[in-house]
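Weekly puzzle thread! Below is a chain. First person to post its structure in token form gets bragging rights.
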Amino acid sequence: MKEYTLPHFGKLSTDNLEEYYDVYIDVNGNRIQIDLNFENGSIDALKLDKVKNYLDNIEKFDRFNKQYILEDYHDENGDTVKFYLEHHLEEFEKDHFSSLINFHDTTIKPEQQLLTKLKLLRIGLYPDSEENFAVSDYSIGEDFTNYLVVVNTDENGQLDYMAMES
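Winning reply:
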């Protein structure tokens, strides 16, 4: 039985994988969930090397994702992040966001204040998938909404696409 040791997950049997593994870790002061998802009962070490690299560089990939989020927000053709923020500001009363937004601060728009509150909640890794290697979920907070800005990337952190999901 071959084993492979991954950060946060420990030893995995490469010939006898479960479909799903998850752990919780702290990243930049936030508690996030990381889950590993396998389509097959076995995997080669090269694919797990990519998972290991991703796990060793979570902070870097988080920075990449936050940059993609900012670019989408500032892009006149970008619709995911603006829609996410506008949706929340239109659907809820100001009191709902009083702990996140200072509505009396006229120097920073409420939308931009809310943008700074987007935090990483979860990373799903799919090393067998032909489509997305990493799926990262961002939210203004689970206490405020069940909607997410979801960033889908390859194993190098290159953006594939972004969407709002619930």
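Puzzle host: Confirmed. Bonus trivia for everyone else. DSSP finds four helices and eight strands in the chain.
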